[in-house]
Design brief:
Blueprint: H1 3-34, H2 40-46, E1 49-61, E2 68-80, E3 86-92, E4 108-116, E5 119-121, E6 127-128, H3 130-137, H4 143-174
Parallel strand pairs: 3-5
Antiparallel strand pairs: 1-2, 1-4, 2-3, 4-5, 4-6
């Protein structure tokens, strides 16, 4: 083997490795970096459609300059802006939160999407953990009702207490209030004696 062929072979391998890194690294880096800027709650508030589902089919779209795909989802939980059990979302190649290319599988994905040109569109930054998406959508509701019920209960307790206090004062002024006999101990016996008071 000649010196050039071994160097050329090494050079070819380095070029192929660099090309593979150049293709994979930007998609992976962009998928990882976009998740650090917004919370799931902020993303949910900014999206028109949100659901938790599983990819059942990926179909390439012809004629687009950038490789674009139609992702067909089976919806497990509809969260916002969609009804039905299946939906198609258009996107460039999707990378999930584990930095894996999204393919048809039984893996549950949280998806945030928007309407554009009569169809739903999304991107890798709009894929979120399904548990986080469900948690962000399950905010406590009915805060004003809970406060109102609490105030009504507080009012009833105060009213009942004031009513009892008023009756007690009225009974004391009429001499009907219960006054314990100072000659009796706690068991009802006379102090110093063993006979209970009858």
């Amino acid at each position: 083997m000649t010196r050039c062929s071994s160097r050329c072979d090494l050079l070819r391998r380095l070029v192929l490795a660099a090309a593979a890194i150049a293709v994979v690294a930007p998609a992976t880096a962009s998928a990882a970096n976009c998740r650090l800027t917004e919370s799931v709650k902020d993303k949910l508030d900014g999206s028109q459609v949100a659901f938790v589902g599983r990819v059942v089919a990926v179909t390439p779209v012809q004629g687009a300059g950038i490789p674009t795909f139609d992702y067909r989802f089976r919806i497990d939980h509809s969260i916002k802006g969609i009804s039905g059990d299946r939906v198609t979302v258009r996107a460039a190649r999707l990378i999930d939160i584990d930095n894996q290319v999204v393919t048809p599988s039984n893996v549950t994905i949280g998806v945030l999407a928007s309407h554009a040109g009569g169809r739903l569109v999304t991107n890798s930054c709009a894929l979120v953990d399904p548990g986080s998406l469900m948690g962000a959508s399950d905010e406590p509701k009915g805060g004003l009702i809970k406060v109102a019920v609490g105030l009504v209960l507080l009012g009833l307790v105060v009213w009942y207490s004031l009513r009892r206090l008023k009756r007690r004062r009225a009974a004391e002024t009429q001499g009907l209030a219960f006054r314990p006999d100072p000659n009796l101990d706690a068991s009802g016996r006379r102090n110093g004696g063993s006979d209970p008071k009858v």
